[in-house]
Amino acid sequence: MGGCTGTSAKLLIAIHTYRDSRSKVTAEELLGSYDGIVQTDGLGAYGSEEYLHAGCWSHARRKFVDSIPENDKTSKAAKAVEIIDRAFALEREARKANVPLEKMLEIRRKEVKTIIEEFYNFIGTLRPSKGSHLGAAVTYVLNQKDKLLLF
After folding, report:
1. Where do the structural domains in the chain lie, given as residue ranges?
2. What is the pTM of this model?
């Protein structure tokens, strides 16, 4: 298990600890009484009443990348990745420009949120085969929607 503060934090830290389990007990031991935001890959063991649980768009994106048929840039999975990549580009550009935290939050709440709404509208049109990679990716982002929308 590892973690670090976001790039906008005043004090940047990274914590890495090894446990042979990804159980809720392990997460709670590490996080203790922390009451901020925890960003994870969606494993249910990280759930807690003490902190806000944010989803990870890189994990979501990877599930769609893994669903793209070989060299098929027109597939539904490729379209999902393209939409996510537009949101990532806004984030990259803002960080590159050293946008202040308040402005970054404004960009996320307006511009990035609009892209994410487009993403979920697109996802709503998909009817992937049960048991397919695309089906797993769609199920993941639908199950993680509240966490992925946390800014």
Report:
1. 2-54, 57-148
2. 0.81
